[in-house]
Amino acid sequence: MATALGIIAAMAVIIFSPFFMREMFAGSDVDWPLLSNIGQTYGAVSALLAAGALVVLGFSVALQAREARHAREQAARGTQFELMRMVLDEPVYRDVVGWSAQDGLTSDEFRRDLYINLLLNWWRMQWEFKDMSEPEVRQAARRDLFSGNAGRDYWRRHGDLRRSFALTRRGRRFEEIFAEECAAAIASGPVGPQSARRSPDRGAVGRRTGVAVAVLGGAAVAGMVGRRLLRR
């Protein structure tokens, strides 16, 4: 009621204010056309300020919508993680998903695929929030996921499905980057054994040998000096 009465009073003041001002300045020599021109000038400035405020308001609303979308997606990722953790901890839930039965995976392979799926979803969320650049995404795909056979096998079985599920433009671009890096990794050849990937550093071996010889020589010299001192 108080709010309604206040609104009515404000509207009454606005409507009757010209009549009040005319009665107040009826006997004065006020130049009303000049005041009208000045008022119109302030009206233009007010319009510019209102347009600027509208732009700032739109930018603020866009930021709030982005933050709300981020919070909603993070909550969804958290729920997905909890569901996948239940599947990893309790083998009885794996029949509900049907992933291992469909692809003929062992228990360890099923757990590995779930981990890769969660890792990819996390990277894609970072990419969509613009917290990861394209070089960082390519580095993660090249050095982390597709440096071994597990990531390549996962992408061979699920890459097309992931690309079909991408709804946004940035999401589709993320899946395309991983598809390109997987094709490049497969074209570079099969992954060799861990021992054959890195050749031994001969310089490091030589340095270690030199250090060992120096230590043994120093010990021998110290022993000779000690025996001489004992004889004296």
TrEMBL record:
Keywords: Membrane, Transmembrane, Transmembrane helix. The chain crosses the membrane at residues 42-63, 211-230. It comes from the Bacteria. This is DUF6082 family protein. The lineage of its organism: Bacteria, Bacillati, Actinomycetota, Actinomycetes, Streptosporangiales.
